[in-house]
Amino acid sequence: MLARLIAPVFILAFAVCSLAHGAPQSAEIERALADVPPKQRASMEWLVAHMPPEDRATLSSAFLLAHVAAATEAWEQSPWRGQVDEAMFREAILPYANISEKRELWMLPLHERSQRIIANMKTAPTLAACAAELNQKLFAETGVKYSTKRARADQSPSESIASGLASCSGLSILLIDACRSVGIPARFVGVPMWVDGSGNHSWVEIWDGARWRFTGAAEATGDRLDEGWFAGRAAGQNNAKPEHAIYAVTWRDTGVEFPMRFTESAPRVFAVDVTSRYTSGAVTIPEGQQLVRVAVRDRATKARVSQTVVCTGQGAQEFARGVSKDERADLNDHLELIVPKSSPLTFAVEGVSDSAITQVDGEGGSGVSTISLFVDADAPIALTKVAAERVTKSITKPFLDAARKSNAAAFKSRVLKHGAVEMPFWFTTYGEKPKSGRSLFISMHGGGGAPKEVNDQQWENQKKLYRPEEGVYCAPRAPTNSWNLWHEGHIDPLFDQLIRDMILFEDVDPNKVYIMGYSAGGDGVFQLAPRMADRFAAAAMMAGHPNETKPDGLRNLPFALHMGGNDAAFKRNEIGRQWKVMLDELSAKDLGGYPHEAVIHEGKGHWMDREDAVAVPWMAKFTRDLRPTRIVWLQDDVTENRFYWLAVKEPKAGQRVVVVREGQCVTIEEAAGVTELCIRLDDSMLDLDKAVKVVMAGRVLFEGIVPRMKDVIVKTLEERGDPTGIFTAEIKVQIPAPL
């Protein structure tokens, strides 16, 4: 078993970290770079750039020169040189250490022993077969066995051989170094804690020329790999908690530190999360299909980048799509697409035409192939979590500053315009401003279907009708005098502009915006609240009529309804009672959904003697949830292309979408009338460094990493001008036709 985990280090190990690879170089490092033979210089530069910073001050130039020379010779003279490219050589042969073991020149001594073992093999000397042979015979040859009485857990090869005892970590180090000494790529793998809390373990992964295979050091299973006593336990691990994930050591900067260290001063190395390799079964390739592994690389640096890849056939028929892996993923962890064999296929990065390559079917082969697509450095590149936060901050302030400058005159005039219509507005401020910003109450007047003078008087009345304890109380004047003056198509963009300007000029908190209205203004609340629910923290309808609208979109919007029991005109009172029952039923069927307070003021007519004013403090209790776990979206006759964290390209009246988010899975329960749905995400909703799955009716529409992209950040900020409404990633899924 591994030694105890150093608690403070263990906690920090899962954070995004920097191991200071840019630290100043010692004179010994400079000498090694100066004296290395030209053919080995690139390898020496890579080693120096990626070595643990603790080693920079201690390793001599002689050590580095000797090790690089021996590693290069082991690689170049191996019979499988053609199966191990330069990237794999640097990944799993060139490093002089695995974790925190003593630094020593083990390459040549182990090469002699290991070469002798594999030279006597009776089977074909493949990478996998030779690794299995070493595991069967190396430990008997060296006299090393597992023991808890070993001097230390992270022993070097010479320490284990001298004592004859080693932990699973020491055994793994010895087997890995023996493999590397004869040009077999190998790496250290560990699990910090089994899910049952019984301890931890480490083992070895071997590169067989096509994929990583695992074996337990000194636990050989004949000439077979991918077997071991721990295989079943590893299959039960998960990365929901970092300590339950399975990690492979790498010297590439993945941003994740290998979590298992034996002393606080031990050199640190990076890791990749390989949990899914152990917990998911092998991919089954259907008859007539092929598996294509796709890597997208920067054209100049050849570094892997995360991009959306689309595979199409003749006539631009789309067969598959997914998101490629960047350098945070394992070196051979590629996007895998299962596509037809029967027709020529085109693979391309979405939106990058010059990245496309055409591949003919894979008949006669293994059914598995690997391709690389290339994009220029200025192509949209996936962001890390930290980079996304930095980009968000960098664009938000300039955007808001520019908006203040361009909107200042209109706001000062107290008249907003949209096309040919104008909306005057009046506001006043009450109470002390909270640190998060002021609340905003948009209060719509009555009237409608009346002369201008009547509606003007209703506007004046509305200015004095309610008074919140805190916030900006704003009474806009409807742009028209029609009966439906508060739910015509121009109201939505005008209210969006009003909210945006109140955020800019009155420091309104975007999550504390409320809408209310009386009589014809209540009609407006009935219509606007469901279709614009994601703009508001709560809504209050007083003495209005819903006409044809439905309450579906109110699922995440607290909704107050106040109606006079005797308000019989247009059957308002009857309909008010019907809505009360309807909201009660919706709330009972949908746990946590449709929060409401419906009050029928018995004995009151259209005027409720201000009893309805209790709706103002009731609303003020609520804060908007822009990222709810369940969304019900019903398009009205005035359509919206964005609702909470969903969007559609072609909104149409009557479309109905129901989506649920739980953990890393998004389930589309309904998408009536929709052919493509865009799902917006950010790190507050789920872990964007882990795979996200989108399912509908038992079908997986998407599964993979969703990249954080600058263009999504910019787009979602520009759509509403709401700095709290920025998303960093999005998935576009095609809605399958009903079966």
Summing up helix and strand content along with how strands pair, one would put the structural category as: alpha/beta
Counting copies of identical and different chains, the oligomeric state is single chain
What is the count of helical runs? 19
For the CA atoms, what is the radius of gyration? 33 Å
Helix content: 25-40%
Keywords for this entry:
739 residues, alpha/beta, Immunoglobulin-like, Rossmann fold, 8-stranded mixed sheet, 5-stranded antiparallel sheet, 19 helices, 31 strands, 29% helix, 24% strand, disordered N terminus
Plain-language structure description:
It contains 19 helices and 31 strands. It is an alpha/beta fold and 739 residues long. The chain has 4 domains: 273 residues, no CATH class; 87 residues, Immunoglobulins (Immunoglobulin-like, Sandwich); 212 residues, Rossmann fold; 102 residues, no CATH class. Helix 17 links the parallel strand 21 and strand 22. It is elongated and about 100 Å long. It starts with 6 loop residues before the first helix and ends in a 5-residue tail after the last strand. The N terminus is likely disordered.
List the helices and strands and how they pair.
Layout: H1 7-12, H2 27-35, H3 41-50, H4 53-56, H5 61-76, H6 86-92, H7 107-119, H8 127-142, E1 145-146, H9 157-163, E2 165-166, H10 168-181, E3 186-191, E4 201-207, E5 212-215, H11 231-235, E6 247-250, E7 270-273, H12 275-279, E8 289-298, E9 308-312, E10 318-323, E11 335-340, E12 345-349, E13 352-359, E14 368-375, H13 385-413, E15 415-418, E16 421-430, E17 438-444, H14 452-465, E18 471-476, H15 491-505, E19 508-518, H16 520-531, E20 538-542, E21 559-564, H17 572-589, E22 596-601, H18 615-620, E23 630-634, E24 642-643, E25 646-647, E26 656-662, E27 665-672, E28 676-681, E29 692-696, E30 699-704, H19 710-720, E31 729-734
Parallel strand pairs: 1-2, 8-14, 17-18, 17-19, 19-20, 20-21, 21-22, 27-29
Antiparallel strand pairs: 3-4, 3-6, 4-5, 6-7, 8-11, 9-10, 9-12, 12-13, 15-16, 16-18, 23-26, 24-25, 25-28, 26-27, 28-31, 29-30
Helix pairs in contact: 2-5, 7-8, 7-10, 8-10, 13-19
